[in-house]
Amino acid sequence: MIPEARQRLRSGATLLNDLRLFSVHPRRQLNVSRPLLGRAAAPRPRPRERVEIPGLEPITYGARSHYVPGLAKPVYPRWEMGHKDPRFYRSPPHQQMALYKEKACYLFNQRTSILEGVRQALWLTKTKQTTGLPSQLLSLAESSANQIADQDERVMNVIKHARFWEMTEMEPPQENYCSTLLHSLLQLCSSLQASHPVLGKRMLAEKYSLTASWNRGEDLFQVRGQNGLLLSSTTPLPPLADRQEVEETENHVLETFYPVSPTIDLQTTHLYSPDRMTTGFCGDYPYPHAHTLYFPEGVDRRNRLRPPQLRAKMIMFCFANALARAHTLYGAAPQTLDQPVCVQAVATDGQNLQLAFFQLNTTDLQHHHGVKNQVSTGRAGRLIDRRHVL
Amino acid sequence: MAMACLSRGLRSLSLLPQTPVLSSQTRATLRPAISVQLPLPAIVSHGTPLQLCRGFITTASLDQNRRFWKQREKYTIKPIGMKKTGGRDHTGKVRTHGIGGGHKQRYRWVDFQRLRFEAGKEGQVFEEKVVEVRYDPCRSADIALVAGGNRKRWLIATENMQVGDIIKTSGVIGRMAVSANEGDSYPLGALPVGTLVNNLELQPGTGSVFIRAAGTSGLLLRKVNGTAIVQLPSKRQVQVAETCMVTVGRISNIDHNQRIIGKAGRNRWLGIRPSSGLWQRKGGWAGRKIKPLPPMKSYVNLPSISAN
C-alpha cells in the first residue's frame, strides 16, 4: 500500500473499530469492568526527555515543518481559546488553585472504611465508649405505652415484605431489602403519632450533605458529604449522662494502636477550606436539631462495610452532626459544653441493627486530656434466621 | 448502521482538490499518455473528474500482545485484573509451552522492597502490624497485608506470621549483631552468622529477588569486610553487599512441596497444559548429574585495582 494513501486513510481504521462494536463477539463481557478483566488500555509511549542546556538554543525542525532526523522536536506553547468555554475547561495544577494549603487535611466520607474500626473512630473524636445502651433508652423501648398495636405481627410483616414479597427471587439484593426494611420500620414507628404528638415535630431528610472540621493533635480532620437519613426535630435530645459522669471521663485514656497511625485509610487532600462547618440546612430550618441518623448499609454495592467499620461510620457521623450543631449554638471556640449535644444513630444491613447514642461534651479536641465525649453502642440480633427460610 | 458509518467515512475521503494517488495499473489504463505529475485541474478540464479508488485497509489493527494490565505506576493493595498470556510473547507466538487455561486470577501487588520509607520518615526504623495472611494465586507462598503509619502493603508472609504480629524493618547496621525475630527485616551486616533468611536483595535498594518461594530459606554463611555470603536454597553461594535487606525466617506454606496434585484436572486448574505426547529421544541433558557446586557468584561491584 502506498505510504501517502495509508496515512490519509488511517481514519478508515477507526471506522472498523465502530464496526467491531456491532458484531457479536463471543468472548466480550460488556457488563464487567475493564480492569477486572485484565484489559487495560495500551499506555501511551513516553515522550523523549528534553535536555535543556542554558545558553544553548536547540535547533528544531519547526521551520521546515516536517520531521528531519537529527533535529530536535519543536515545542510550541499551548493554544488558548480566546474565550471561556465550560466544555473545554482545563483545571490548573493543585498548587495554583485557590484552596490549596501546604498542610494536608484528612477527610472522612460515607465510603471510608477505616482499618481499626471503632478504636480509630473513638480516637479521632476523643470519645469514650460504653457497650450497651443506657438503661433509660432500653426502658423507653420496653414500656408498653410506646408499643404499637400488634407490634410483633406488624414487624414480622415488615421483614417478610422486605425479604420475600418484593421480588420473585429467593434472595433479593441487599440494597433492595435493606432500604425497604428501613423505610417500612420508620413508617411503623411514625404510626405512633396519634398517641405521641411529639413525633409530629420531627422531619425526615434524605441525601443531605454535612461538613464538620476539627483539629486533633497536629492534624486537621474533616467529615464531609452525604451520610444517611436524618430525623431532625424542633427540640434537642436531652443528654443521658449527668455532669458527674462527664467529669469522670477526664480520667479515661484514649486507646492508641501503634504502629498504625490514626489517620490510616482517611483520604488526604491539600485543597480544603479550614474551619468549614455546615449542618446541611439553612439557618431558618424549622427542625434544626439532629435527632437520629439512619444508615442503610449495602446500598453501595462496591463499598460494603463490615460491622466494625459500620459502627465507626456511625460514630463519626454522629460526632460530625453534633459538632456542626454545637458550632452554630456555641460558636467556634473550643470549649467544654454546659449543655451536651446528643445524636442517636441506627445502622442496618438488613440482618443486624447497630444502635448508638452519642453525647458531645466538648469541642476542645486538640489535646488528648480533658473531658471526653461519650458514645453508647448496642446491637439488636439477627432479623432473619436463614436456616428456617428455605 | 454499520453501513452508514462506512459510507459516512468514505464520503469524507475526498479526492479533490489534492493530487490523486494512483496505482500503476490505473495509471496505465486511464491515461497512458499523461504523466502523474500533472495537477488535477488539467484532468478536470478534459471532462468529468475521474472517480479513483485508492483502497483502504480491510484488516483490523494488529494489537501487540503486550501486558498492558501491568502498567500501573501507583501502588495499590486492591487486586488487579490479570490477562493470561498462554505462554505467548509480544509477537503472539508460543514461547513457553505448557501454559494456558486455569482459574482466573487477580494480581496482588507485593512490595518486595521491604525498606521503603513513607514520605517524610526516611531513615527511621519502623514497625508494621500484620492485618491479614492469605493465599495468593500468583505464587506458592502466602502473602500478608501489613499496615504501618499511614499505608498498607502486601508482603510475602514468613512461616509463623499471625494476624496481629508486629514486624520491624530497620536499615541500620550496628556494631553488635541483632537477635532478630522471625518476620523482621534487617541488612545482612546486622544479622548474626547462621540466621535463616529469605527475600534477599542483590543490589541494595532494588527489591528482593531471591528466596521467595514457599518453604524456602537461605543461610547467612559469612560476613567479609563489607559483603556477606549467603547460601541459596539450591546450595549455591552468592556474595552481596552487607547493606542488602533480608527478612528473617522461612517463607510460609512450608508443606507446598509435599502436596499431591492427584489428578490431571488439578494441574489444568493451575494453568499447566499437558506436555507433548510425542516420544523424543533424550539427549545429554537428561539423567542424574553429580557435579561440583558452581563457584560463588559475586554481586558486589568492587572498585578494580588498576596498576596506575
Automatic annotation (TrEMBL), chain A:
InterPro entries: mtLSU_mL37 (IPR052482)
A single GO cellular-component term on record: mitochondrion
Top-rank lineage group of the source organism: Eukaryota
Protein name (Swiss-Prot/TrEMBL): 39S ribosomal protein L37, mitochondrial
UniProtKB/TrEMBL annotation, chain B:
An annotated Gene Ontology molecular function: structural constituent of ribosome
Compartments in which it is found: Mitochondrion
GO cellular component terms, A-Z: mitochondrial inner membrane; mitochondrial large ribosomal subunit
Large ribosomal subunit protein uL2 C-terminal domain sequence ranges: 180-299
UniProt domain Large ribosomal subunit protein uL2 RNA-binding: residue ranges: 87-169
InterPro entries per record: NA-bd_OB-fold, Rib_uL2_dom2, Ribosomal_uL2, Ribosomal_uL2_C, Ribosomal_uL2_RNA-bd_dom, Translation_prot_SH3-like_sf
Domain of life from the UniProt record: Eukaryota
Key word Ribonucleoprotein present: yes
Keywords: Mitochondrion, Ribonucleoprotein, Ribosomal protein, Transit peptide
GO BP annotations listed: mitochondrial translation
Region (Disordered): 81-101
Gene3D superfamilies per the UniProt record, alphabetical: 2.30.30.30, Nucleic acid-binding proteins (2.40.50.140)
Protein family according to the UniProt entry: Belongs to the universal ribosomal protein uL2 family.
Protein name: Large ribosomal subunit protein uL2m
